[in-house]
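Quick sanity check, Putative arabinosyltransferase ARAD1:
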Amino acid sequence: MVVERKMQPQLPPPEHRRALRFVVFLGISLLAFSCWALVNSRISDAMHDSSALLGDVDKTPALTGKEGTHLPAGDSITSASAAVPASGNTTAGAVKLSDPVIREPLVRGGEGERSGRCDADSAALRVYVYDLPAEFHFAMLGWDGKGKAAWPDVRDARAVPHYPGGLNLQHSVAYWLALDILSSSLPPGSDDDTARDRPCVAVRVTNASLADVFFVPFFASLSYNRHSKLRRGERVNRNRVLQAELVKYLMRKEEWRRWGGKNHLIVPHHPNSMMEARKRLSPAMFVLSDFGRYSPDVANLKKDVIAPYKHVVRSLGDDESPAFHQRPVLAYFQGAIHRKAGGKVRQKLYQLLKDERDVHFTYGSVRQNGIRRATAGMSTSKFCLNIAGDTPSSNRLFDAIVSHCVPVIISDDIELPFEDVLDYSEFCVFVRAADAARKGFLLRLLRGVSRDEWTRMWGRLKEVARHFEYQYPSRPGDAVQMIWGAVARKMHSVKLQLHKRGRFQRTGSES
Ligand SMILES: *[C@@H]1O[C@H](CO)[C@@H](O)[C@H](O)[C@H]1NC(C)=O
Ligand SMILES: *[C@@H]1O[C@H](CO)[C@@H](O)[C@H](O)[C@H]1NC(C)=O
């Protein structure tokens, strides 16, 4: 029977065959198109998330016309500013060791700074750095140790591997921390400026039993930015592979097992980075931009550290910062009005403010409008609005700070970097989302701020701006040192927990 059927195939008539072929062709075309659309949306999503400022554009088609054309999704990585290790000359006049913000525990070892020696005894934090394979860190920047060196030579700041520019830089926190901690173990007394002038908050130790904290130098944000797409021949994207390998690596480590990972430091600063591994590695201390995409058991303020985004606009020097009367715009906002969640207040505010003459409320990315224009816009505005988007944080806040434009924070559950040592109310205005949505409330509030009051906040902004600078070589009180300081403070409570747990070690459980 079977054989017979095979021998007499029932071919459909030719016109049917043509129709069939057409249908198949149509199906394949549709499939190809949807694949393309999917990949495209993934890319723009990735871009979007990595760049609160930039991704905004494609979500507001109706409003972008005002500011220019659409941004092609996907090529946003190679944008505006180039990667420069020693970014921004903000030290001039800004670094004052007597600044009240830097309190004692932050710069323990101040003497170390002056004498040029920073060792395990004088530093607040002793850091053991895992020698992860280069693919987890500097190989992503094109560095190749050729099997000889575990780490790049960091003696010459101009010669260290560069981080990819543009909006990737926003989340480059792990890179700056890695460079700084590597430079702490340069041979003492070397002629090199990088070693001599380094602030002494954290120092690298190679003996694990001396370490306060174990630094896991995985450039998780860059891995997300770079490796989330499937490449040809891959069944799992590289970002996932690296995460799985990292988990395996750490679980094998005696140091991880001994303390359950609690004294380990991991830097998934991009809100979408380490999606797959974050739960497994959650006992560790994370350095994050916010808790928006974390469940409270995985990340929380008790164990984790909030770090600033690296700003994308140029920092203003103290002497070039326009004063009250030189800032004609009352309030400045740039971004999207439609956000996925928590961003409804933006749309509401747009309706309330769009017709005000001294309010600059535009929809577009920094890239689209140019870094220069954003710099100019913020530095000629008295207040810069910071409105909750799809994550509570964004680099807009840090752009405002370095533009000395008083941030108006309209986000009920934002977490701010270093808030245990910085009183943000001295240089920011906080407004509850519900209040901001009330007619006339915001403008009345901002117009009610007197020139003296504003100038006081402006003065404070100029003092604190340096705490939000990432740079290499790192300088006293910059973002890198502030993060080490925050980690050191948090380690006190981790140690308390660990020591308590160890109380009955000698007598065992039967006591
Ligand atoms: C930074 O500014 C200071 C003072 O304005 C200047 O002396 C120094 O050369 C500048 N450094 C760089 C790298 O531009
Ligand atoms: C590491 O430090 C501990 C404690 O000070 C010491 O006993 C040990 O000998 C050190 N190990 C090495 C390899 O130096």
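Posting the structure with no commentary besides this: Residues 207, 209-210 surround 2-acetamido-2-deoxy-beta-D-glucopyranose (ligand 2) (CB under 6 Å).
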